[in-house]
Amino acid sequence: MPHLVHDVEKSRGANARGDTDHPGSARVAAKKRGTCYMFGASFVRSCLGATLVAGLAFAASSHASAQDWPTDPVQIIVSYSAGGGTDRQARLLAEPLQEILGVPVTVQNLPGGGGQVAAMAVLREPADAPVLLATNEPDLTMGPLLNKAPFSRDDLKVIVVDVTDPRILLVTKDSPYKTFEDFVKAAKEHPGDLTISAAQGGAQEMFAQWLVKSLDLDVRIVGYGGGSDAANAMLGGHVTAALGDDFSRMNIRSESRALLIASDGPSPRWPEAEVMKDVLPKYGADVPTPDFLARFGIYAVQTAMKNEHPDHYKTLQDAILKAMNSDSYLAAVEKAGLDDLSKRAAGEKFQSSFDATARTVKSIAE
C-alpha cells in the first residue's frame, strides 16, 4: 500500500477560523492537488472536478460493506508545531489508521494560544465529523481553567491516551543532595536558598509550585522559556534543581540525577528516583494522583460526538487502538524506548486521573 498521509499547510485565516472549505483548508487543498488512493486491488485517482466526485464515490462504495462511517478523510489536528513529540506520534498513527478505516488521514499543525487554536478548529466541525485533536493533558485542562479559553473543558472528550511522561525532579551529578530527603532537609534548614527551574506558564511550573507548597518549603521557582532552558539552568549551576519529564530529559541523563518521580512506580531510566506517592505522605502531603500533572499524549474529539453519535465514537476509538497495536506502530514505540510509557488505552480508563488533576489545577489557580 502506498503512503497516504497528507501534510496540509493551511492559511493563517483558515487556521484561526477552523474553516474546512476555506481556500487554505485541507479539503480544498486536496481537491486542487489531486491525490491517489489505493484500497486493496482497487485504485482510485481523485482530482478536481467530476473525476474527484467519481473517485470518492467509488472509494466509499468499495468500503460500504465494511463500514458506513467515516466516508470523509480523517483529520488529525495537532496543537503544537511540526517536529515535536505530539506531531511525531500523530504521523506515526496516521498510516495504520487509514489502512484500518479505508479513508485518507491528514495531519495538520495548528499551534498557538496554548492549544486553543487547534481545539477551536476541532470544535467548529460538525459533531459527526471524523476529526481528532492531538494534544497533551494537562494542557487541554489548563487552557479553559487558566487562560480564559473560548470553550469549556467539557466540550472535548479524550478518546484515546497514547503515551505518558511523568514529572521528575533533577539535580546535577555532583550535587550535594543525593536523595529527596537531603533536598527537603536543606530547604527547611536554609529557607529561601534553594531554587527549582521549570518551563514557565505550564504544567511543569505548576507542579513545582504545588510540590513546594505541599511540603511547606521556602523554595523559589524560576521560570524559563522551555524545558530545555530549565535543564540547562540546572546544569550551569544557576539553580539548585530542575523540574523535567522522565523520557524527555534523557538527553541529560549522564549529567544529572533524579531525586523524585511522579509515577505509579520506579522508572527504568531513572531507577534512583524515589516514587512521589510513596515519599510525600511521610511529610504529611497528599498526592492527588500518582502521576499528578504528568504529560499525557492524547487524542480528543468533541464530546457531542460521543453523546450524539456513539457509534461513530466507538468506530473511531476502536480503529485508533487497533492502529496503535499494529506491527509498524509497536516497532516504532520499541525503537524509541517508550515501551513502559506507551499506554494505548481508551480515554475512559484515565478519566478519574484527569478529573483529579482538573480539581487540583482549579484549586491552585484560585
The name CATH uses for the topology of the largest domain is D-Maltodextrin-Binding Protein, domain 2
Query: Beta fraction of the residues?
Result: 15-25%
Number-wise, the strands total 15
Number of continuous helical runs: 14
Major sheet attributes: 7 strands, mixed
Distance between the termini: 53 Å
Query: Would you tell me the structural class of the helices and strands?
Result: alpha/beta
Radius of gyration: 22 Å
Q: How many domain units?
A: 2
Query: Whole-number average pLDDT?
Result: 83
Low-pLDDT segments, ≥5 res: 1-66
Could you give me the name of the CATH homologous superfamily of the largest domain? Answer: Bordetella uptake gene, domain 1
Helix content: 25-40%
Shape: elongated
Q: Judging by the overall fold, what is the CATH architecture of the largest domain?
A: 3-Layer(aba) Sandwich
Major sheet: order of its strands? 1-5-4-6-14-7-15
Name of the CATH first level of the largest domain: Alpha Beta
Write the element-wise H/E pattern from the N-terminal end onward: EHHEEHEHEHEHEEHEHEHEEEHEHHHEH
